[in-house]
């Protein structure tokens, strides 16, 4: 094959690859929700010039969310467009990731970038009777590093399904909720919390759940050992004289255990 023919084939292959990238509706670029510091697909010229009319909504979120709780959410576009896609993120007061998105179907996927997490379409979907929607899950964080509120930023594309960048536009919105820390204590049986081995003059403590303090007293109430930690799974070896002792353990969950120990 001549050099000219090779050049022509190379150019044609490049054009086909570029066309496939432009037409591929899967995995839209992250950072397009117009959250602080972000633009939209309309502003970046990948979906522009459209005049579709419609709305976007996010349902499944109460005004107050409880830490560690999973919520099933739905984003819905209602419009006169032909094809739709979406992207969403949830941010704390510092505009960083708050909570975790997860999926249970093939129409959505989750990805992360620059300290933020996004849930988005796996493929664009045709509207049916003027609407299209996507389901996904979101789990509230255990705590926030800034403030007590979480803001969801979400956007949908409204397209004409002609595989071009023109004739499309977007609908966007946001929703703010307040995080409530769950202070309820879930009491687990002791065999799920720790393991103990008692030797001659020594107690071996192996935690199975994170603890914040381990304290040992004699029967007169004198404190013999006191180990404090923010969130530890470190085992402990405690030297004790023979006799009866009281072992007090407090766990990160808030559960407290008091156990009588006999050392020979």
Write a structural description.
It is a single chain. This protein starts with a helix and ends with a strand. The strands form 4 sheets. Strands 1, 3, 5, 7, 8, 9, 11 and 12 form an 8-stranded mixed sheet that branches. A 4-stranded antiparallel sheet has the order 2-4-10-6, with no helix packed on it. The radius of gyration is 28 Å and the shape is rod-shaped. The chain has one helix spanning about 5-25, and strands at about 50, 55-60, 65, 70-80, 85-90, 100, 110-115, 115-120, 125, 130-140, 150-160, 165-180, 195-200, 200-205, 210-220, 225-230, 235-240, 245-250, 255-264. It has 1 helix and 19 strands. Residues about 5-25 have low confidence and may be disordered. About 10% of the residues lie in helices and about 50% in strands. The protein has 2 domains: about 25-180, Immunoglobulin-like (Sandwich); about 190-264, Immunoglobulin-like, CATH 2.60.40. With about 260 residues, the chain is mainly beta.
Put the structure in a nutshell.
By secondary structure, this protein is mainly beta.
Keywords:
four-stranded antiparallel sheet; mainly beta; 1 helix; Immunoglobulin-like; rod-shaped; 2 domains; 50% strand; eight-stranded mixed sheet
Oligomer: single chain
Estimate what percentage of residues fall within beta strands.
Answer: over 45%
CATH architecture of the largest domain: Sandwich
Number of helices in the DSSP assignment: 1
Mind sketching the topology for me?
Blueprint: H1 3-23, E1 48-49, E2 54-59, E3 64-66, E4 70-79, E5 83-91, E6 100-102, E7 108-113, E8 116-121, E9 125-126, E10 131-139, E11 149-159, E12 166-180, E13 194-199, E14 202-207, E15 211-218, E16 223-232, E17 236-239, E18 243-251, E19 256-263
Parallel strand pairs: 1-12, 3-12
Antiparallel strand pairs: 2-4, 4-10, 5-8, 5-9, 5-11, 6-10, 7-8, 11-12, 13-14, 14-17, 15-16, 15-18, 18-19
């Amino acid at each position: 094959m001549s050099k000219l023919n090779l050049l022509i084939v190379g150019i044609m292959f490049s054009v086909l690859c570029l066309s496939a990238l432009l037409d591929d509706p899967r995995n839209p670029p992250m950072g397009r929700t117009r959250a602080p510091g972000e633009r939209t697909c309309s502003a970046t010229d990948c979906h522009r010039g459209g005049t579709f009319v419609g709305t976007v909504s996010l349902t499944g979120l109460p005004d107050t969310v409880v830490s560690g709780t999973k919520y099933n959410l739905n984003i819905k576009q209602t419009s006169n467009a032909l094809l739709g896609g979406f992207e969403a993120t949830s941010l704390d007061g510092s505009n960083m990731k708050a909570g975790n998105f997860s999926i249970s179907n093939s129409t959505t996927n989750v990805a992360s970038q620059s300290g933020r997490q996004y849930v988005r379409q796996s493929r664009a979907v045709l509207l049916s009777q003027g609407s299209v929607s996507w389901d996904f899950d979101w789990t509230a964080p255990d705590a926030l590093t800034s403030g007590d509120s979480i803001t969801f930023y979400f956007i949908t594309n409204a397209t004409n399904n002609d595989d071009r960048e023109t004739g499309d536009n977007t609908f966007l919105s946001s929703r703010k909720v307040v995080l409530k820390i769950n202070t309820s204590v879930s009491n687990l049986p002791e065999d799920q919390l720790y393991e103990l081995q008692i030797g001659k003059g020594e107690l071996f403590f192996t935690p199975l759940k994170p603890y914040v303090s381990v304290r040992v007293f004699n029967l007169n109430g004198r404190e013999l050992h006191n180990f404090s930690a923010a969130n530890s799974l470190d085992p402990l070896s405690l030297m004790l004289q023979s006799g009866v002792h009281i072992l007090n353990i407090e766990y990160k969950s808030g559960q407290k255990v008091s156990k009588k120990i006999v050392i020979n």
